[in-house]
Amino acid sequence: MTGEQGIVAANFGRQVLVENADGALVPCIISGRKLRPVTGDRVIWERLDEPGKGLVCKILDRDNELTRPDRRGRTDVLAANITQVVVVCAPRPAPDLFLIDRYLAAAAFMGASAAVVLNKSDLVEETGLGPLQEALEEYRRIGYPVLHTSAKAMNGLAPLRAQLVGQVSILVGQSGVGKSSILNALLPEADILTGELSEGSGEGRHTTTASRMYHLDSGGDLIDSPGVRDYAPAAFGEADLTHGFLEFAEPAGHCRFANCHHLREPGCAIIQAVKEGKICARRYESFKRLERLMTQLRPGY
Fold first, then answer.
1. Is the link from the previous residue into 299 a cis peptide, with omega within 30 of 0?
2. What pLDDT score does 126 carry?
3. Which of 104, 154, 177, 280 is the most buried (most CB within 10 A)?
4. What is the mean pLDDT of residues 102-129?
5. Average pLDDT, the chain
6. Mean pLDDT over residues 8-34, rounded?
């Protein structure tokens, strides 16, 4: 196929911005209704007769996909070719620890690394961390990098920049935790629209409506994604769900049965590890919730 290779830098439904070989952004329409490029995709595109416009003709093979199920249970791809998932949380809005776990599981299934960022660290003295403190310590114990930032106070940005170097990272998390504010702090010229928390609900307003990729001066690419109130990864074929929970890997190899689902089977080493306090009970509950969801998405799981 003739045409030029580029990378989708932003997705707006049936239109995308493609970064060409020279680094210029070209507005493109998409050829055919079955073609669904997402931010991070490597694509083949052709120039149209209209100056400065293009047509995306083909999506090249993806290294991985960040997915979720749509309302009909089909797989919705959010971004592609990601090497690192950065899960952002904050003291306010109230953190959803199960949502964080699901993003971390999705990263593991993608073959991507992951990190947890506590933003709005300037609010800690005002609100405290409560259960979030224990969760952050648990993530660090498991092996995830845990960083503390305050985009507002411009604190903790140097370690975050270092974490992003050489990576294609995506910022994910609840609405209102400050993902766009972090991007603004890292890359002020991006001029991302930020919003304040809803006075009535305490939940964040969605300030990013489309995923967009930016190149960081310090090295690496960063995708800012829309905030969510809930998230779950799409079904992962025949993959073992324990692969999404890093601390489960070692004990899972000692279960009595090779096809153990780690729910109520006798001789389950993961259940025993939970009883002995070697695996966090809350993380195990998160695993069970995700297992039930996978059962709904993938009959016969």
1. no
2. 62
3. 177
4. 88
5. 87
6. 92
CATH architecture of 65-224: 3-Layer(aba) Sandwich (3.40)
d(CA 115, CA 88): 9
271 near 262, Cβ under 8 Å? yes
pLDDT value for 198: 37
Average pLDDT over residues 20-34: 92
Q: Which residue spans of the chain are classified as CATH 3.40.50.300?
A: 65-224
In the predicted structure, residue 125 carries a pLDDT above the cut 50 = yes
CB-based contacts of 104, cutoff 8 Å, min separation 6: 85, 87, 114, 116, 139, 144, 244
Percent of all residues in the chain with a pLDDT value above 70, rounded to a whole number: 88
Would you state the pLDDT for residue 93? Answer: 87
Handedness of CA 105, 110, 113, 115 (dihedral sign): negative
Longest dimension (CA), the chain: 68
* Distance, CA of 114 to CA of 133 (rounded, Å): 18
CATH code at 241-297 = 1.10.40.50
User: Distance (Å, rounded) from C-alpha 185 to C-alpha 279?
Assistant: 36
Residue 196 pLDDT > 50 = no
> What gap in Å lies between CA 67 and CA 74, rounded to an integer?
10
- pLDDT of amino acid 301: 45
Question: What one-character-per-residue DSSP string does 142-162 give?
Answer: HT--EEE-BTTTTBSHHHHHH
Count of Cβ atoms closer than 10 Å to residue 98 Cβ: 16
Range(s) for CATH 2.40.50.140 in the chain?
4-59
Specify the pLDDT at position 206: 44
CA torsion sign for 67, 76, 38, 187 is negative
Strands (E), 31-174: 42-47, 54-59, 65-69, 75-80, 84-89, 113-118, 146-148, 168-173
Q: What CATH class does 4-59 carry?
A: mainly beta
Question: Residue 76 in contact with residue 48, Cβ under 8 Å?
Answer: no
